[in-house]
Amino acid sequence: MSPRARVIAIVATAAAVAAGVAVGVTVATRSDVSRPAGKPPPFAADPTAPPELARQVREALRAWPTGTARRLRILAERYPHSALVRLELGLALAFAGQNADAASAWRDAERAQPDSPSAVRAADLRHPGTPPGLPPFVPTFTRPRTEAQAHLLRGVAFQQALRPVSAERGFEAAVRAAPDDPEALTAAAVGRYDKENPAAAFSRLGPLARRFPHAQTVRFHLGLLLIYFGDLPRARRELALAQADGPRTRLGRRAETLLRAGRKR
Q1: Do residues 14 and 121 lie in contact, with contact meaning Cβ atoms separated by under 8 Å?
Q2: Are 214 and 194 in contact (CB under 8 A)?
Q3: Burial zone of 20 (CB within 10 Å; 0-12 exposed, 13-18 middle, 19+ buried)
């Protein structure tokens, strides 16, 4: 796959997650972009961006290759809190072979508007050796029966929309409603996962495995986070423990799916 195609694939995969497509376990890879491309960088729609701003970004992309980066830099100054502009600026710079500047633009996207799909996609592009997106929290239920469960499902919906900050707030609200519930505590830990600082999640989830040694949700999500972290041997061990705690439960079946996928690697 060409470098340009790999960049497009990462953006497209993140968009698919936003549409609710199940998250897989294949580790995304991408070689460095090192030469200009004939076609402009892809436009990655972001519902958090104002329509007028999205229109201006599209116009900048249509100026490829001569005027795109300049127009996007102007938009970045005009809209200092827009992750979309900085994501697209990074793509334009990467397509032009300016990889260091591209990475800087993507880092700026994450800082400018962290609660946005563009920030999540920027993190994907800065960490090409990890699965796209962020680890999803998988609830053990389908219909909420408690206040905490209602908060959990709201957090899941925000995760699917690639709104990690809002998702984390929903999970923390679940903890406030049920402070001793291992599922709410697990969701709050998962919601803190950051590719730049994975310890923010592991530092919470690890102690939960000791506090709730037979909570399937803890083991399952610990295994899932280890996949994103890249420690596949430990991930398999945790997922095997999760499956053993209940092979026919919702999480038990998910764990088996991930284990089968790992055996095919």
Answers
A1: yes
A2: no
A3: exposed
In this prediction, residue 264 carries a pLDDT of: 67
Identify which of 74, 3, 7 has the alpha carbon closest to the alpha carbon of residue 44: 7
Round to whole Å and give the CA distance between 138 and 44.
26
Q: Please list the ranges in the chain whose pLDDT falls under 70.
A: 1-37, 264-265
Cα distance between residue 227 and residue 239, in whole Å: 10
Structure tokens at 160: 């699917």
Q: Per residue, what are the HEC states of 138-176?
A: CCCCCCCCCHHHHHHHHHHHHHHCCCHHHHHHHHHHHHH
- In this predicted model, what pLDDT tens digit does every residue of 51-89 receive, in sequence order? 999 999 999 999 999 999 999 999 999 999 999 999 999
Best CA proximity match to 108, nearest among 155, 72, 67, 142: 72
Coil, helix or strand at residue 41:
coil
What is the full DSSP assignment across 222-234? Answer: HHHHHHHHT-HHH
Measured between alpha carbons, how far is 97 from 84 in angstroms, rounded to an integer? 20
The pTM assigned to this predicted structure is 0.84
Element (H, E) at 12: helix 3-18
SS3 102: helix
Q: What is the pLDDT of residue 199?
A: 96
Task: Give Cα separations from 75 to 11, 20, 51, 149, 197 (angstroms).
Answer: 21, 30, 14, 41, 29
Angstrom distance (rounded) from CA 117 to CA 237: 32
